[in-house]
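Why predict the complex rather than its parts? Because the way molecules touch one another can change local conformation, and only a joint prediction can capture that. The input here totals 225 residues.
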Amino acid sequence: DVKVTQSSRYLVKRTGEKVFLECVQDMDHENMFWYRQDPGLGLRLIYFSYDVKMKEKGDIPEGYSVSREKKERFSLILESASTNQTSMYLCASRPGPVNIQYFGAGTRLSVL
Amino acid sequence: AQSVTQPDIHITVSEGASLELRCNYSYGATPYLFWYVQSPGQGLQLLLKYFSGDTLVQGIKGFEAEFKRSQSSFNLRKPSVHWSDAAEYFCAVGAGTASKLTFGTGTRLQVTL
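Output of the joint prediction:
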């Protein structure tokens, strides 16, 4: 089975803090994604990466950055957390040729 | 631009009743269509997918979906709902090899006993 692991299920941070959300997949997938999920808005793509050190902006990249130094790990970075970044964050990975995404359990982030 | 509409925000059905969740999409080419389910506090699990071929696709947990090109729809069905099916359901559209999936806003299913 594909396993996508997000390091934290719940996080509470203060406004202005730098926040790192970590995601690791164990299936050697080329593609990895970060989404945020908000009630009534569904999933919105923040960033994705199709290879090590490669990244592309999704639909809502403002206020976020990402890092992919190793194939199995994709990090989402909030440089200066704000209250409007309180949300559920979902990581996903996808093997190269097949457009099926596998999701982690999510990190619920609260910014106070 | 691709888009997905799930017109029902919240649906309540009785256990044992049939279920249909609606999904309409807008996509310029041949779509690849997906249904995912999210149980409370969990990530998304793939229920089924349509890439090509038979327009009626079977998935896990007894779910099926039918692709209707003329109606731009990909509705999810289950003949008899179980209490454990209570969850949020997301429809998504993408291309075969492109990276992005576009998700609908989800339908929350409540099952009464």
